[in-house]
Amino acid sequence: MQSREGNRRLSKKWVTLAVIITVDLVLSGSLLVINYAASDNKTTNFFFGVEVETTTT
Amino acid sequence: MTEVKNYTNLVVLGLPQVSIDRALLDQSCDYIYSQDLYFMVLFTNTSQYSGWQNYTPSQWVQDAKAKYAEKFLAVYRWDEPGGDQLDSSPYKLVKSAENYSDATQQYVNVLKPEVEYYQNTGLDVLTADYGLYWFDYEAGYDTVLAEFGWNNSRSMQIALARGAAEAHNKTWGAMITWTYTEPPYIESGARLLEDLVLAYKNGAKYVVVFNYPEVSTASYGLLGQEHLSAMKQFWNYSSTYGPSGKSIETAYVLPEDYGFGFRNSQDTIWGLWSADVSTSKICSDVNMLTQLKGAEFDILINNSTLAKDVKGQYTELIYWNGNRVNP
After folding, report:
1. Which of A15, A37, B62, B68 is 20 to 30 A from B247, comparing alpha carbons?
2. Domains in chain B, number
3. What is the per-residue pLDDT across A14-23, written as a single tens digit (0 to 9) for each?
4. Contact B15 A43 (CB under 8 A)
5. In chain A, what residues touch B73 (CB-CB under 8 Å)?
6. ipTM for the assembly
7. CB contact, 8 Å: A41 with chain B?
């Protein structure tokens, strides 16, 4: 039981830490930047490559 | 492909003999897909696929769409139809016409079914060309790649392709192709990089470097280390910077159905007529605009369907006959 209690306390600490970090990121605007970067998938908007061609039919 | 896959995201299979050989086509597309690259496939005349028996190219495209999903970008059908028309190739679409309007109608009538055959699968259809872009879009193409080659004016190519694409609510791109008919065949690495950046900054959705493995004993066909290096630099550039996003304020408006080649002031109209009374002024106007604005203007063709909202995108419309309109 003690071990479970210990785990619960440890989990609470991680949750608290995660909340603090998230709030801090939102307040600083960093999270918005991260979200924007993740959704800004340039490769689907612009295509660059080579054409391979030999004889035409 | 192994060499360029880390600094490109697209392969254009422009090999009719691959598209005709179904097993080789499947194998090639499977490989490209396994490399996490987007791709397009050139299809030739449907009569060439008789060996497929009851399985049609259209069915293949539908099945490939399901199999490769978003990685299969487009069908490339009929290479350089405008060029075929202007230079009277064996594939010339319109052999004779009563007037420019008749030439337009015939050109569209011949090309449209070829485009629609693949468009009906739900996939985009694309071509690369060196003239008559406006009329390629009239025939229904979703994208036209304007060829940057020889010593043609890149600014003029962009103005023609982007103007036509915007007016038809479609996309455009650039195809970097032959500069010389003998070695080194293709422009220098430095010029290649300039062209790639120019097309990208001006809003091209696709930029493709043409390669032709059979003319050289070099490892990568036409492309030497200087070209591969330029392509890497461009990939880094496009991964870092967006296109300029600058709106184009000025459009030059040509007469209705004016199928002029724009390679020089003596170029042909529709491959059927010599330059006419308007040509000299039009060439002079367009050359002046390229000097003044570079690629920052579009070229449109006047017709009854040129919607008001297209014209309204510009703050200045300069007509071939000297009229100027500020919508």
Report:
1. A37
2. 2
3. 656 565 555 5
4. no
5. 47
6. 0.92
7. no
